[in-house]
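I have a small job for you when you get a moment. Can you supply me with one protein entry, sequence and fold together? It will help me judge whether the discrete encoding reads sensibly. Write everything out right here, beneath this request:
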Amino acid sequence: MTDPVLVEVTRGNFVESRHRGAIAIYDFDGKAVLEIGNVEELLFPRSAIKSMQALPLIETGAADALGFDDADLALSCASHVGEPGHVERAASMLAKIGLDESALECGTHWPTDQASELALARAGGKPNQLHNNCSGKHSGFLAVCAHCGMNHKGYVGFGHGFQQMIRETMNDVTGAKHDESNAAIDGCAIPTYAVSLGSLAYGFSRMGSGKGLSMDRAAAARRLMRAAMSNPFYVSGTGRPDTVLMEAAPGRIFVKGGAEGVLCGVAPDRGLAFAVKCNDGAGRGADMIGANIVARLFADEPTVVEQIANITSPSILNRNGAVVGILRPAETLARLEI
């Protein structure tokens, strides 16, 4: 099956580029409401499933034992951009565990927020693992290890007990296998597993509804998504698509993107969950597809739609700031009905 073109990129009066992709939307009974493209093809969800990976943080009692608040929980589900607030929050989480930056095994990169990157460089500083977009997630992993008496050394390895815990959790939530046969290594050094877009949408429908999950797991899922929706800055950062989408409908939409054009979301009061894959791995394509889904879900609320207009159909500017084109929904996406 050839996935349809979902996004067109224009320059002047011409279409310069096109993004093909797939969409899976499931209701809270775990049934497909809409499927576009090949939703059974295996893909790596990458960071889109961090909220699922954070479930043991709640279920083991680690979060409460260590005094993690909702902002900490939001950062445990985050792909932050390295703003000072993100770095400070990750350091604070580690301090509550009794560890520091050296315990992280996620690797180092410069802040992806340009202003924060420049400020750090101008101050003569260098990035460390706290600046890694996954430092909050990894701090949550370390919290579980500490609370459960696991040696945290090598916690990113496939054979570590914590990674076994993650696999069992993901198997249960998505209904898809997570083992050596579909494993690879993510950018932050932990295992990542190839599953279908349908499995992701199904998993997030269960995260939103709790149906089919144990009572404790359902409660943990609700708590994590509530924390993320209440603290969208910590999930991504100032002006970032995930953050803007959640800010537009506070407490009513959960969105989390991942590398290589994956994005997942839950609209609790609409009883729907969705998963998106932009085939060429473009984040701009996935963000736009996801934003258009959100716009359809909240079509009866013009204020919400207006607040996300810069993501549903963003302008393309030249170096002088003039508009020279747009990203627009292609026919399949423009006619989307949910």
Q: What stands out?
A: The radius of gyration is 19 Å.
